[in-house]
Amino acid sequence: MLFGRRLGFGIVVLAAQVLLLAMSVAWLAQLVLIAINGRVCFEEDNSAILYGEIAAMALIGLFALVVFVIQYRRLGEKRAGEDRRRGGAGGD
Q1: Which residues of 38-63 are buried (b: 16+ CB within 10 A; e: fewer)?
Q2: pLDDT at 88 exceeding the cut of 60
Q3: Does the reported pTM lie above 0.70?
Q4: How many structural domains is the chain composed of?
Q5: Using an 8 Å Cβ cutoff, are 19 and 66 in contact?
Q6: What gap in Å lies between CA 51 and CA 55, rounded to an integer?
């Protein structure tokens, strides 16, 4: 079961990185358009596409929040064989 948990978490982290990369490329494209044209204007006549894009962005944001919470919780977990004492591994 531990292998499945680690594999699942690895897939989540990879998906988060891919989404972060995609959003950074989109932001870069916006900035290049601003540099070339001085502005960026979007117009979407099809409301289904517009609301689909809004929903996709909301899901990406929710996914990012979930990944953040998972990673935050993992910060406090004790790994096998790990000693959390500070100040060295001296005798008590």
Answers
A1: eeeeeeeeeeeeeeeeeeeeeeeeee
A2: no
A3: no
A4: 1
A5: no
A6: 6
